Amino acid sequence: MAKLEERQALPEEDLRDFFREMLLIRRFEEKVEERFRAGELPGFLHVAIGQEAVAVGVCRALEERDVMASTHRAHGHTLARGTPPNALMAELYGKVEGCSRGYGGSMHLYDVERGNLGANAVVGGGLPGIVGAALAFKLRGEDRVALAFFGDGATNIGTFHESLNLAQLWGVPAVFVCEDNHWAESTPASQHLPIRDLEQRAVAYGMESTKVDGQDVEAVYGATAQALEHARSGRGPFFLLCETYRLVGHYVGDPQVYRPKDELARLRETEDPIDKLRERLGLSDEEVEEVDREVTGIVETSVEFAKNGTDPEPGDALKNVYA
Amino acid sequence: MPELSYREAVRDALATAMRRDDEVFVMGEDIAEMGGSMGVTQGMLDEFGPERVRNTPISEMALVGAGIGAAMQGMRPVVEVMYEDFLTLACEQIVNQAAKHRYMSGGQVKVPLTVRTQGGAGWSPGAQHAQQLEAWFVHVPGLKVVFASTPADVRGLLYTSIYDDNPVVFFEHRTLYGIKEEVPDELEPIELGKARVHREGEDVTVVATGRLVHEALRAAEEAEGEGVSVEVVDPRTLQPLDEETLVASVKKTNRCVVAHEAVTRMGFGAEVAAVLQHQAFDWLDAPIERVGARFTPLPFAPVMEEWVVPHAADVLEAIRRTVGRNGH
Fold first, then answer.
1. Does residue B244 lie within any of the structural domains?
2. Count of domains in chain A?
3. Interface list for B 157-216 with A (CB within 8 A)
4. Is residue B188 part of a domain?
5. Where does a domain end: B135, B157, B182?
6. What residues of B are annotated to the active site?
7. In this predicted structure, what is the pLDDT of residue A261?
8. Which of helix, strand or coil describes residue A279?
9. Given CB atoms, is A245 within the 8 Å cutoff of chain B?
């Protein structure tokens, strides 16, 4: 196992910026839940409430030239990677101004200019592509890293195993970020994982790994920076296990009949990454309210932007099938 | 003009692209030292080295997916899937990822990936090493599908596929690797979506793919002895499909047989028949005949295998049926 070297404390200014970003994601996701329940958003949605520290900690550690692939629970990653909230919300409303021009939706968010190669609605579906992107960087001698997000549930699917194996075999600059939120949709880890320690998955392929508290954004940032450095310096891929908590259902509207009733209330008390960072920074109520007002305003604006967006022509469905 | 075998022609297309362009590389199982299970990549390791002639683990999903990822970065990978039966293992990546990244992103990315594979019966490998699954992939918007039947075609079409900005599933036929044909001195790319008229005729059009092109040509010669003039057309590209050439041919001959080695049910011939009956209905003098494998997995015993898949005699019978219906 790679040992976390002594972590350099991040400047408070950076942490305050992380706080703002995490709160923006939280307010965005809450708004998405609200607008979905109001019947305004088509399709179905997975929000990342509770997992904001992973999104922000990982994405802020990436260099602009790096690339990433996300999952069905992609709003947080996408915002943290720099996609404007307006473009993301417009996508959720199916508008031309959306980050995937209305062709993708919540589970297929792309922003290639910002190194976001796409959220993937097939569990584990994006991992092989990240190995390929990393292979391209290696073959071209480019100083870039490709990073994949996925959940604990994805560690049971073939693409995960084939991808880790291939990445390690070829020593490509890839980072695999497992967001272990302990639930594969409605199935608890006890029913889908025969091992408790998911780092063993990486050990099986001879891959360096580390485990980090996914509710501590500073720790996630530090561990990601080390993982990226490992990959960038030619030492091959890295497996980063982030222990995190989904403080909501699998999808918006999920009654969570499978989850112990007190679990959510307890986790919201003890494992909210935003509360933790607030405490770490010692922010006053006034300071928090000020940030909250700002990000809430941004989110409100994004809804207005999206609602005033342009519907695609139905016939536009025939575009973009082939290059 | 030099003569190349189908195998050499595939290799020449790969090598020509790789000499021209560092962004092209090949990967697959056993393709390096061994030169591929069909010998296609023999000698390429020596010329291009192990970075560009990459041996891979037996991991079709990751291998095709890695090709997708490299393609999305602008490289032009050619992934060899040893047998097309094993495309089933990579279907998720081909169908959900390669075919859809461009679409789902609203046109932000291209996936210039070529997946080469081969299949075909005639050597008793049994049910899991000789299927003809090309029709499956024609059913997926976002993919292009090529099935080359001669050395000149495979050379020109593969080169074009590598330089196409879309994912191409490229089918080769196992029993054709040894056949020879004169090819242009310099590789001439062949446009996707253009059929090849192998033989002109007046009475019946046979639309055939893969091995059945050669069976159809044999059947056409026999038919000629019976006074029936047969036109043999190979679409070569199944998606996009050169409907114009097929329709024009049938408007001239007024009869059509579609022939492929894949099972007849839901085979590519069904699509061709549908296109033709719609666009040339008033010109048809007989129902379109279909020739394909019987609806069964491929059996092992040579006598059964031989009976299941179609041959020239089956095409000839279909030709006779279609002209017979008009009083010939």
1. yes
2. 1
3. 165-166
4. no
5. B182
6. 60, 129
7. 84
8. helix
9. no
* Nearest residue of chain A to residue B98 (CA atoms): A129
Range of the domain at B166: 3-182
The verdict on a CB contact (< 8 Å) between A323 and B97 is no
Size of interface A-B (CB pairs under 8 A): 144
**Which residue do the tokens 């393609």 mark?**
B71
> Is the CB of B68 less than 8 angstroms away from the CB of A104?
no
B103 touches chain A (CB under 8 A): yes
What parts of chain B have a pLDDT lower than 70? 325-328
Domain match, B12 and B135 both: yes
- Cβ distance A133 to B166 less than 8 Å, yes or no, reads no
Has residue B251 been placed in a domain? yes
SS3 sequence of B125-182:
CCCCCCCCCHHHHHCCCCCEEEECCCHHHHHHHHHHHHHCCCCEEEEEEHHHCCCEEE
User: Domain check: are B146 and B58 in the same one?
Assistant: yes
**pLDDT tens sequence for chain A (323 residues):** 344 444 567 999 999 999 999 999 999 999 999 999 999 999 999 999 999 999 999 999 999 999 999 999 999 999 999 999 999 999 999 999 999 999 999 999 999 999 999 999 999 999 999 999 999 999 999 999 999 999 999 999 999 999 999 999 999 999 999 999 999 999 999 999 999 999 999 999 999 999 999 999 999 999 999 999 999 999 999 999 999 999 999 999 998 999 988 999 999 999 999 999 999 999 999 999 999 999 999 999 999 999 999 999 999 999 999 99
* Pairing outcome for strands A146-151 and A183-184: unpaired
How many structural domains are present in chain B? Answer: 2
Residue B92 backbone phi and psi in degrees, to 5? -55, -50
User: A116 CB near a chain B CB, below 8 Å?
Assistant: no
Distance from CA of A102 to the nearest CA of B (A): 7
Residues in chain B closer than 8 A to A318 (CB atoms) = none
Q: Does B139 touch chain A (CB under 8 A)?
A: no
The burial of A38, by beta-carbon neighbours within 10 Å (0-12 exposed, 13-18 middle, 19 or more buried), is given as: exposed
Q: What is the CATH number of the domain that holds B203?
A: 3.40.50.920
* Distance set, CA A26 to CA A222, A302, B23 (Å): 22, 14, 42
CATH code for the domain in which residue A222 is found:
3.40.50.970
Q: What is the pLDDT of residues A239-287, one digit of tens each?
A: 999 999 999 999 999 989 999 889 999 999 999 999 999 999 999 999 9
Pairing mode, strands B114-119 and A208-213: unpaired
Residues in B closer than 8 angstroms to A136, CB to CB, are: 69-70, 73-75
